[in-house]
User: Fold this.
Amino acid sequence: MILLREVEVNPPGEATHEYPWNVTAVARLYRLRFETPVTFFVGDNGSGKSTVLEALAVKAGCHPEGGSRHANYSPRHSNTALAEAMHGIWNRPATDSFFFRAETFSAYAEYLEMIDGLTSYGGRSLHGQSHGESFLSTFGHRLQNLHGWSLYLFDEPESALSVIGQFAFLRLLNDWVRGNRVQVIAATHSPILLAFPGAMIYNFDVTPIAPISYTDTPAYRLTRAFLADPAAFMHTLFQPE
Assistant:
Protein backbone atom coordinates (compact mmCIF):
# COMPACT_ATOMS: atom_id res chain seq x y z
CA MET A 1 0.00 0.00 0.00
CA ILE A 2 1.29 3.45 -0.92
CA LEU A 3 -0.22 5.85 1.59
CA LEU A 4 2.16 8.79 1.23
CA ARG A 5 2.46 9.41 -2.51
CA GLU A 6 4.58 12.54 -2.58
CA VAL A 7 6.22 15.18 -0.45
CA GLU A 8 6.74 18.74 -1.62
CA VAL A 9 9.29 20.97 0.13
CA ASN A 10 9.18 24.74 0.26
CA PRO A 11 12.63 25.90 1.45
CA PRO A 12 13.22 29.28 3.11
CA GLY A 13 12.90 32.22 0.78
CA GLU A 14 16.36 33.49 1.69
CA ALA A 15 19.60 31.50 1.55
CA THR A 16 20.63 30.15 4.94
CA HIS A 17 23.59 28.20 6.24
CA GLU A 18 21.72 26.83 9.23
CA TYR A 19 20.81 23.17 9.70
CA PRO A 20 19.10 21.46 7.97
CA TRP A 21 19.35 23.75 4.96
CA ASN A 22 23.15 23.50 4.99
CA VAL A 23 22.86 19.80 4.06
CA THR A 24 23.32 19.64 0.29
CA ALA A 25 20.61 17.04 -0.34
CA VAL A 26 18.12 19.03 1.73
CA ALA A 27 18.97 22.38 0.16
CA ARG A 28 18.10 20.98 -3.28
CA LEU A 29 15.09 18.91 -2.22
CA TYR A 30 11.83 20.18 -3.67
CA ARG A 31 9.85 17.02 -4.33
CA LEU A 32 10.11 13.34 -3.41
CA ARG A 33 7.77 10.69 -4.81
CA PHE A 34 6.98 7.30 -3.29
CA GLU A 35 5.99 4.79 -5.93
CA THR A 36 6.37 1.45 -4.13
CA PRO A 37 5.26 0.14 -0.71
CA VAL A 38 8.91 0.01 0.41
CA THR A 39 11.36 2.87 -0.18
CA PHE A 40 14.99 2.96 0.94
CA PHE A 41 17.26 5.98 1.39
CA VAL A 42 20.96 5.31 0.81
CA GLY A 43 24.00 7.55 1.05
CA ASP A 44 27.24 8.08 2.90
CA ASN A 45 27.36 9.41 6.44
CA GLY A 46 26.23 13.03 6.47
CA SER A 47 24.41 12.80 3.14
CA GLY A 48 21.09 13.88 4.67
CA LYS A 49 19.06 10.67 4.49
CA SER A 50 18.42 10.54 8.25
CA THR A 51 17.58 14.25 8.28
CA VAL A 52 14.89 13.77 5.64
CA LEU A 53 13.58 10.60 7.28
CA GLU A 54 13.24 12.30 10.65
CA ALA A 55 11.37 15.20 9.04
CA LEU A 56 8.98 12.73 7.40
CA ALA A 57 8.43 11.09 10.78
CA VAL A 58 7.69 14.40 12.47
CA LYS A 59 5.36 15.33 9.61
CA ALA A 60 3.54 12.03 10.19
CA GLY A 61 3.09 12.96 13.84
CA CYS A 62 5.77 10.69 15.32
CA HIS A 63 8.17 11.57 18.11
CA PRO A 64 11.47 12.80 16.56
CA GLU A 65 13.51 10.26 18.54
CA GLY A 66 11.27 7.27 17.99
CA GLY A 67 7.82 5.93 18.71
CA SER A 68 4.27 6.20 17.52
CA ARG A 69 2.06 9.28 17.43
CA HIS A 70 1.28 8.72 21.09
CA ALA A 71 4.88 8.71 22.35
CA ASN A 72 5.30 11.43 24.95
CA TYR A 73 8.80 11.91 26.32
CA SER A 74 11.27 14.78 26.20
CA PRO A 75 13.51 14.72 23.12
CA ARG A 76 17.18 15.49 23.57
CA HIS A 77 17.09 17.45 20.36
CA SER A 78 14.40 18.58 18.00
CA ASN A 79 14.60 20.48 14.73
CA THR A 80 11.28 20.76 12.94
CA ALA A 81 12.28 23.25 10.24
CA LEU A 82 12.32 20.71 7.42
CA ALA A 83 9.09 19.04 8.57
CA GLU A 84 7.38 22.42 8.69
CA ALA A 85 8.50 23.09 5.11
CA MET A 86 7.03 19.78 3.89
CA HIS A 87 3.63 19.22 2.38
CA GLY A 88 2.51 15.60 2.10
CA ILE A 89 0.23 14.34 -0.67
CA TRP A 90 -1.56 11.19 0.44
CA ASN A 91 -3.43 8.48 -1.44
CA ARG A 92 -4.93 7.55 1.91
CA PRO A 93 -4.15 9.19 5.26
CA ALA A 94 -2.27 6.93 7.65
CA THR A 95 -4.36 6.04 10.68
CA ASP A 96 -1.17 5.26 12.61
CA SER A 97 2.56 5.71 12.19
CA PHE A 98 5.75 4.57 13.88
CA PHE A 99 9.31 5.88 13.74
CA PHE A 100 12.30 3.73 14.70
CA ARG A 101 15.58 5.56 15.13
CA ALA A 102 18.56 3.37 16.04
CA GLU A 103 20.61 6.30 17.38
CA THR A 104 18.07 7.15 20.10
CA PHE A 105 16.49 3.73 20.62
CA SER A 106 17.64 3.52 24.24
CA ALA A 107 15.62 6.59 25.25
CA TYR A 108 12.53 5.27 23.51
CA ALA A 109 12.97 1.82 25.08
CA GLU A 110 13.11 3.33 28.57
CA TYR A 111 9.96 5.32 27.89
CA LEU A 112 8.16 2.32 26.41
CA GLU A 113 9.00 0.09 29.36
CA MET A 114 7.88 2.76 31.80
CA ILE A 115 4.42 3.17 30.29
CA ASP A 116 3.75 -0.26 28.84
CA GLY A 117 5.35 -2.81 31.10
CA LEU A 118 6.63 -5.74 29.07
CA THR A 119 3.73 -6.32 26.68
CA SER A 120 5.30 -4.45 23.75
CA TYR A 121 8.32 -6.70 23.43
CA GLY A 122 7.31 -10.24 24.18
CA GLY A 123 7.21 -10.24 27.96
CA ARG A 124 10.95 -9.59 28.45
CA SER A 125 12.56 -6.32 29.40
CA LEU A 126 14.47 -4.76 26.53
CA HIS A 127 17.30 -4.12 28.98
CA GLY A 128 17.52 -7.86 29.61
CA GLN A 129 18.03 -8.60 25.92
CA SER A 130 20.97 -8.07 23.62
CA HIS A 131 20.98 -4.97 21.45
CA GLY A 132 19.89 -6.90 18.37
CA GLU A 133 17.29 -8.91 20.26
CA SER A 134 15.74 -5.73 21.62
CA PHE A 135 15.47 -4.32 18.08
CA LEU A 136 13.73 -7.43 16.78
CA SER A 137 11.47 -7.59 19.84
CA THR A 138 10.33 -4.04 19.16
CA PHE A 139 9.80 -4.72 15.46
CA GLY A 140 8.01 -8.01 16.01
CA HIS A 141 5.85 -7.11 19.02
CA ARG A 142 5.39 -3.35 19.22
CA LEU A 143 4.36 -2.98 15.59
CA GLN A 144 1.77 -5.71 15.96
CA ASN A 145 -0.11 -3.29 18.19
CA LEU A 146 -0.62 -0.80 15.36
CA HIS A 147 -3.78 -1.17 13.33
CA GLY A 148 -5.37 0.32 10.24
CA TRP A 149 -3.36 2.04 7.53
CA SER A 150 0.15 2.45 8.93
CA LEU A 151 3.32 4.28 7.92
CA TYR A 152 6.53 2.74 9.29
CA LEU A 153 9.77 4.73 9.17
CA PHE A 154 13.13 3.18 10.10
CA ASP A 155 16.49 4.88 10.50
CA GLU A 156 19.24 2.24 10.16
CA PRO A 157 17.26 -0.70 11.60
CA GLU A 158 20.16 -3.02 10.75
CA SER A 159 22.67 -1.27 13.02
CA ALA A 160 22.42 -3.84 15.85
CA LEU A 161 21.36 -6.84 13.79
CA SER A 162 23.45 -9.83 12.79
CA VAL A 163 23.17 -11.14 9.25
CA ILE A 164 20.56 -13.62 10.49
CA GLY A 165 18.80 -10.77 12.28
CA GLN A 166 18.66 -8.79 9.04
CA PHE A 167 17.02 -11.76 7.33
CA ALA A 168 14.50 -11.87 10.18
CA PHE A 169 13.76 -8.18 9.61
CA LEU A 170 13.21 -8.85 5.90
CA ARG A 171 10.61 -11.50 6.78
CA LEU A 172 8.82 -9.00 9.01
CA LEU A 173 9.01 -6.41 6.24
CA ASN A 174 7.45 -8.89 3.81
CA ASP A 175 4.67 -9.70 6.28
CA TRP A 176 3.83 -6.01 6.75
CA VAL A 177 3.77 -5.24 3.06
CA ARG A 178 1.91 -8.42 2.11
CA GLY A 179 -1.02 -7.29 4.25
CA ASN A 180 -1.37 -4.28 1.91
CA ARG A 181 -1.97 -1.89 4.80
CA VAL A 182 1.57 -0.71 5.52
CA GLN A 183 4.03 1.60 3.78
CA VAL A 184 7.69 1.50 4.81
CA ILE A 185 10.38 4.14 4.34
CA ALA A 186 13.84 3.32 5.68
CA ALA A 187 17.36 4.71 5.66
CA THR A 188 19.95 1.95 5.56
CA HIS A 189 23.53 0.98 4.71
CA SER A 190 22.71 -2.73 4.47
CA PRO A 191 23.06 -4.49 1.08
CA ILE A 192 20.88 -7.25 2.55
CA LEU A 193 17.92 -5.01 3.32
CA LEU A 194 18.29 -3.15 0.03
CA ALA A 195 17.67 -6.41 -1.82
CA PHE A 196 14.01 -6.46 -0.77
CA PRO A 197 12.05 -7.28 -3.96
CA GLY A 198 10.44 -4.31 -5.69
CA ALA A 199 11.78 -1.66 -3.33
CA MET A 200 12.54 1.80 -4.65
CA ILE A 201 15.96 3.19 -3.65
CA TYR A 202 16.83 6.88 -3.47
CA ASN A 203 20.49 7.91 -3.64
CA PHE A 204 21.39 10.83 -1.36
CA ASP A 205 24.99 10.96 -2.62
CA VAL A 206 23.87 12.87 -5.72
CA THR A 207 22.22 16.26 -6.09
CA PRO A 208 19.34 16.35 -6.54
CA ILE A 209 18.35 13.09 -4.85
CA ALA A 210 17.65 10.46 -7.52
CA PRO A 211 16.57 6.81 -7.82
CA ILE A 212 19.33 4.21 -8.08
CA SER A 213 19.23 0.51 -8.92
CA TYR A 214 20.16 -2.03 -6.27
CA THR A 215 23.25 -3.25 -8.13
CA ASP A 216 24.51 0.33 -8.59
CA THR A 217 24.45 1.18 -4.87
CA PRO A 218 27.87 1.43 -3.20
CA ALA A 219 26.61 -0.94 -0.50
CA TYR A 220 26.10 -3.67 -3.10
CA ARG A 221 29.12 -2.95 -5.28
CA LEU A 222 31.66 -2.67 -2.46
CA THR A 223 30.31 -5.66 -0.55
CA ARG A 224 30.37 -7.78 -3.69
CA ALA A 225 33.94 -6.71 -4.52
CA PHE A 226 35.07 -7.50 -0.99
CA LEU A 227 33.43 -10.95 -0.86
CA ALA A 228 34.77 -11.88 -4.32
CA ASP A 229 38.37 -11.57 -3.12
CA PRO A 230 38.86 -10.33 0.48
CA ALA A 231 42.66 -10.60 0.34
CA ALA A 232 42.96 -8.51 -2.83
CA PHE A 233 40.46 -5.98 -1.48
CA MET A 234 42.45 -5.61 1.76
CA HIS A 235 45.71 -5.30 -0.16
CA THR A 236 44.28 -2.41 -2.16
CA LEU A 237 42.68 -0.83 0.90
CA PHE A 238 45.91 -0.79 2.89
CA GLN A 239 48.08 0.70 0.16
CA PRO A 240 49.70 4.00 1.25
CA GLU A 241 48.00 7.03 -0.22
The chain is about 30% helix and 20% strand.
